[in-house]
Amino acid sequence: MKGFHLVVVALLACACASTNKEPPPKPFAATKWQLVMEIPLAGELPYVRFGDGRMEGFGGCSRFASRYIQDAVGARAIAIGRIEVDRRLCDRIPQVAESRMLEVLQSVSSYSITADVMKMSGSGGTLTFNAVAEAIASATVPAAAARSSTSLTGTRWKGVVESGVDEGSTPWLEFVEGRVAGYTGCNMLSGPWRMEGSEVRLGPLVTTKRGCPGAGGEVEKRVLSVVNDRARVTREGSRLIATAPGGERFEFSEVR
């Protein structure tokens, strides 16, 4: 009888342990990781997102992007290439916070994920991020705008390119309230945007000035010829179509 009692106790202990099981870690790629700060900044919080060998994010002041190499064996080692930053003028506090974040991020050599928390560490220190749902991360977006079928606020778009073009040369656009940030296939771009009826008006846009040979440079020429303040941009279902006054066009597909 005593042995039976011990078995029951053991089973109950196992049941309790199973109910307290830690949730599985969020995926490293495609998750939006928001920086944990001692004193959060006003407005949009800094974040990073990884996928297909490319990192992109927001530092609290400027948009940034880079390529990265991840250990395929699963040791959670990572090497981040030179971070390209679309520099914007900001108040001193966001600029200082952003500079520190990018300094540490550039030195990162490993990461770990526990549930919805990611820590990235390197010679410059450690950064802690929380996984956030896009709806939460875009909490500053007015509800009416989020519900509007014509609004681009909170959406992301990937350029429709030929099959031979790799991810590092594939352009993208991301819209937040009143601002657009993106990648031309070679350089970062950013600027204001607004809706005029059913059309989107971009710009004036600014870009970084890095030279890119090969596919990236060719894609950039096509993108910048139509993604500017003279272009007519319309949303047609899951496609965003930019058309230049001369008739040239470039399409983006919505990333869900």
Task: Report what the structure shows.
- This protein has 256 residues and is of the alpha+beta class.
- It has two domains: 32-135, Beta Barrel (Lipocalin); 141-255, Lipocalin (Beta Barrel).
- Helix content is 21%, strand content 37%.
- It contains five helices and 18 strands.
- Strands 1, 2, 3, 4, 5, 6, 7, 8 and 9 form a nine-stranded antiparallel beta sheet that branches. Strands 10-11-12-13-14-16-17-18 form an eight-stranded antiparallel beta barrel.
Topology:
Layout: H1 2-19, E1 32-35, E2 47-51, E3 54-58, E4 63-70, E5 78-80, E6 84-86, H2 92-107, E7 108-114, E8 117-122, E9 125-132, H3 134-137, H4 143-147, E10 156-159, E11 172-176, E12 179-183, E13 188-196, E14 199-202, E15 206-207, H5 215-226, E16 232-236, E17 239-243, E18 249-255
CATH architecture annotation of the largest domain: Beta Barrel
**Fraction in helix:** 10-25%
- Main sheet: strands, sense, barrel: 9 strands, antiparallel
Mean pLDDT: 82
Q: What fraction strand?
A: 35-45%
Secondary structure tally, helices: 5
The unreliable regions are: 135-149
The coarse overall form would be globular
Distance between the termini: 59 Å
Question: How many discrete domains?
Answer: 2
| Number of distinct beta strands | 18
Give the structural class.
alpha+beta
CATH fold label of the largest domain = Lipocalin
Which CATH class of the largest domain applies here?
Mainly Beta
Please compute the radius of gyration using only Cα atoms. Answer: 22 Å
Order of helices and strands: HEEEEEEHEEEHHEEEEEEHEEE
Quaternary organisation: single chain
